[in-house]
Design a protein that fits this description.
By secondary structure, the chain is mainly α. About 65% of the residues lie in helices and about 10% in strands. It is built from 7 helices and 3 strands; from the N terminus they run H-H-E-H-E-H-E-H-H-H. The chain has a 3-stranded parallel β-sheet, sandwiched between helices. Helix 3 links the parallel strand 1 and strand 2. It is elongated and about 75 Å long. The N and C termini lie far apart (about 65 Å).
Amino acid sequence: KNKGYLSALSILVQKEFEEVITESDKERIMQILLDKEVDIIVLDTGINTVSQQKEHLDFIREISSAGKEIQIIVLTNFSQNSFGMEAVNAGAFDFVPKPWNNEKFIVTLKNAFRMRKLSLELNKKDTMERELQTLEQMERKMMEMALEKCNGNVTLAAGLLGITRQTLYNKGKKYNL
């Protein structure tokens, strides 16, 4: 909202991060999130009424629910630390009271960046594990189909699958076939 804060933040973080985009319009922010891979959003909440705080919390939830592991840092006024905690509960990574300490702010951003990378790695690992389970399920299904086609003849089914009889036997034990 405050162009002075946007400029100061932009200058501060450009030294540490590859690309910095400043935007204050929520609709444009959401469009940027669709068009680009965004690691961190710094949300300056300004001085808020209760209804504005609710809007900010809803916006944080909307970003968090997008499933992109975007880390949100909320800038709050010093007197609004309880709102900062509500923001964290809504899905923000952390909150930083204004006026901020540059070094601490950069550390918070770097921690958020590390958290995002770790979260993406864990999601990738989970996906790979699900795919491995799927491969095992496919292997089992192929073995079942080969055995059925060969009327239970292990030697013929192994030949059909291009594996040895012993391999089919061992895998059959693994899959309780």
